[in-house]
Amino acid sequence: MDLGEINPVLLVASLMVAATPLLLAAIGELVVEKAGVLNLGVEGMMIVGAISGFAISVETGSPWLGFIAAAIGGAVLSLLFVLLTQFALANQVASGLALTLFGLGFSALMGQSYVGVKPPSMGDIHIPLLSDIPVIGPILFQHDPILYLGIALVAAVWATLRYTRVGLILRAVGENHDAAHALGYKVIKIRILAILFGGACAGLGGAYISLIRVPQWTEGMTAGVGWIALALVVFASWKPWRALLGAYLFGGITVLQLNLQAAGVAIPVEYLAMSPYIITILVLVILSADKSSAPASLGRTFHASH
Amino acid sequence: MIVLEKRPQPSKAWSYATPLVAVLATMVFGGILFAILGKNPIQAIGTIFWEPLFGEFAFYYRPQLLVKGAPLVLIAIGLSLGFRAGIWNIGAEGQYIMGAIFGAGAGLAFYPLDAFYVFPIMVIAGAFGGWLWAAIPAFLKVRFGTNEILVSLMLVYVAEQMLASVSLGLLKNPEGFGFPGSRNLQSYESAHNAELIAGSGMHWGVVTALIAVIFAYVLLNRHMLGFHIRLTGEAPRAAKFAGVNPARLILFCLGMSGALAGLAGMFEVAGPSGQVSIDFNVGYGFTAIIVAFLGRLHPVGILLAGGLMALTYIGGEIAQSQLGLPAAAIQVFQGMLLFFLLAFDLLTNYRIRAARNEVA
């Protein structure tokens, strides 16, 4: 065992990379839940995003096109959720599960010929001057563009929810859809847009795993990240910046756990590998006492009877 | 303009018809999917649904129907109790694994003792393992209000790591030449969940699944607790006024589904599968969710749905070897089924009407 081999700078830098898929999926789901919809299909949308992004970037050689395809792939799958919950008025929990089960199978089917293929690399941005600062430079300013996009999305979602009319309407729909409907807002339309946004974000998060974090395609490679993202939204009490904090916390645990495995700590590998899931449970327990910040209409079906 | 009008009462006729319509729609769209994959759709669908029952080798496949259907039915019966009350245990896969580990562990602890009580102890241990794993989200929900969906799901991943750990360590076969996996319980007489009638596929798990169906039917239709479960799901406010104790209901529903999933895992590991190994679980815990919904959360429905789902598993394997249909295609096929079911359920609860545009 040699803990000295763990380089703190690299650790923090890779923590940010590990946190990004979680962050992307969580910020999308946060918007969906703010609109009063509980989409448990995050895992399914992520894995479909992962394979769509992977396939397109391998075929075209462009990771950028891959990420665009991933966002579209995630959004298309979430469209199925829209059909089920917004038009067929199906139970949201069951529909989300259906999305995940379907997505896992569908991605495995699409990904058959991509096992073992290496995707084109995106390359990191070295922000001039800033990236040359010792310690802080490599940690903060030498990453791939999608990582920065994730952080920008958090800021954008935060500002939109807090300061804009759109954000206010979205929150109104999530808090009390009957009142929002009575005021003349198109509840279903707003929810559909939120769900599609959530799907696109989850797709991006999935592609981040298959194109940058790993980068490779294996069946079921998201391994519960989508579910952790759902927990993260609860952890964040539906606040964007807390989602960022939470994602980095979980990213940190994942990376630390992997580093401890590599360093050959005396704890068996399996126990280290299960730690992120156990910590998720612990965090949920600690935070579940306070439910006041959850959107009041979360998970309820809206049907205008007249 | 088409409008949806909520039915005062869910339509009985449609609630029976939707599973059938969903199966038909899945066949059509599944056929399209298979055609896209370059297979003859009619042949593929025929292979999946016809071959295991009436094909040339049906004598071999029919018993498999029981072997594959039993765990699905056992797990789905447990899940349906909770689903009816709005308690979502989606971690049955983890409870299934823990049941297998506990059951096999108890059996292997006695190895090579030859005694009649080994198997019953394994059964109890398996049920206990599953119950224990489901009791965690139940306890956390009752005590802290933690979301049981996320906790039970997280515990699946923990259980998978446990499985890897015990098959490489604690339960590893000491005479296994270093290969991962436990001793094969099939060759340990006292612990083997053998077929009760040779060649029929009928083992203790199948018997237990049938008992569970009857038990659930009686519980839901003839017992106060079953009434409370249904009441909580259909009219939560009324349930509150009627004095239903939600904590008791959560502990019962989650605990019961965990114990049944654990039993399913134990019967599987002691019988058809034979040993604890890293990839012992094949996703029955998740497929059972589809079975529960396809069976309309009704015990008899679940029995039929379990049979149908087992058919797609076996037919899928045949299609895999005969037509080269990818394994994942069957997974998509099963996922599709749940989709169509949820979509067509609209017709159970709503009436579709053509309406003129009026000013309200």
Question: Which labels suit this protein?
Answer:
heterodimer; A: 306 residues; mainly alpha; ABC transporter involved in vitamin B12 uptake, BtuC; B: 360 residues; two-stranded antiparallel ribbon; 15 helices; cell membrane (chain A); transmembrane (chain A); membrane (chain A)
CATH-derived topology of chain B = ABC transporter involved in vitamin B12 uptake, BtuC
Helix content of chain A: 55-70%
Parts with pLDDT < 50 across at least 5 consecutive residues of chain B: none
Reading off the top of the CATH hierarchy, the class of chain B is best stated as: Mainly Alpha
Total strand segments of chain A = 0
Note down, in words, how this protein is organized.
The complex is a heterodimer of chains A (306) and B (360). By secondary structure, chain A is an all-alpha fold. Helices cover 69% and strands 0% of the residues of chain A. The termini of chain A are far apart. The mean pLDDT of chain A is 82. Chain B has one domain: ABC transporter involved in vitamin B12 uptake, BtuC, CATH 1.10.3470. The longest helix of chain B is centred in the N-terminal third of the chain and has 27 residues. In chain B, 70% of the residues lie in helices and 3% in strands. With 360 residues, chain B is mostly helical. The model of chain B has no long low-confidence stretch (mean pLDDT 84).
Question: What order do the helices and strands come in, and which of them pair?
Answer:
The complex is a heterodimer of chains A (306) and B (360).
Chain A: H1 8-34, H2 42-60, H3 63-87, H4 92-110, H5 136-140, H6 145-163, H7 165-175, H8 177-182, H9 187-213, H10 225-235, H11 240-263, H12 269-287
Chain B: E1 2-6, H1 12-36, H2 41-49, H3 51-54, H4 58-84, H5 92-110, H6 118-144, H7 148-168, H8 204-222, H9 224-234, H10 236-241, H11 246-270, H12 284-294, H13 299-323, H14 327-344, H15 346-349, E2 350-354
Antiparallel strand pairs in B: 1-2
Helix pairs in contact in B: 1-2, 1-14, 2-13, 4-8, 4-9, 4-11, 4-12, 4-13, 5-6, 5-7, 5-11, 5-12, 6-7, 6-11, 8-9, 8-11, 8-13, 12-13, 12-14, 13-14
